[in-house]
Please model this.
Amino acid sequence: MNTRSGFVVIFGKPNAGKSTLLNSLLNYNLSIVNRKVQTTRDRIMGILTEDNYQIIFIDTPGILEPKYELQNYMVSEIRTSLVEADLVIHIVDAAKVNFEDIKKVNEDYKELLSDKKKIIVLNKIDLMKKDNLLPVIQKLINEFNYNEIIPVSALKKENTDELKKVILSYIPEGHFFYDSETLTDKPEKFFVNEIIREKILDMYHEEIPYSVMVDVTEFKERSNDLTYIGAEITVERETQKIIIIGNKGANLRKLGERSRNEIEKFLNKKVYLELFVKVRKDWRNNKKFIKDKMISNNPS
Model:
């Protein structure tokens, strides 16, 4: 039996719905989904395997103009992913289409996109009238060089089956890269880190979520039914540390409880979680610190 296997990169502006689309195509939640922008910092691989095909989806950070070393790292994750792509999905918010933004993305990534098959996915069609969608599609046909234009609602899984069929038509013949049981290239430690960061995104506001680095420093089996996890939360200012901890530690306890509950569901075992808060001034511009922490949470 001939098999197909290939890499599909999902990229676009922040909050276009990249992670929601990935989760929808995979039929399980792999990436953090949050209304706050710049939620994804690392590229995340999600693997969909059926009898005769394997699609390796890569969710990438949102496209942005970098202001910090951390954002430079995020842009490098996008570029590295595009090099590997057999197919590129450029996802945009259909309800807020900005044609100048689409043009700029194509210009900024021209050298990486020039020889790639490209699909533009118009997401969030559930938020707009159908009559308003047709002129958008026509303008994209007239002004841009995409192989396909597919409208979907990733959240409501509207037209995502059709999108999957189109994606498969661009996947080359080849042997599987991963065994059929593998769902991602990331280790458990990475997802524990992401769960804690997701709860921070949910609980805190303004600059706090973007000034936080989470690092799982210990991950040990203490007994057959208990896993010890220690995690450092690094912020940039003492005032941020005070907010994270809260009055008499109330916020940190709540964060720990919410994180632990989710981690226990993910690992399917009891967890003892300890959170520590540290201050490292201007860490988002510290290239070595960022590299060390990203490697720590993405061990090979």
In short: Residues 97 and 136 are 8 Å apart (CA to CA).
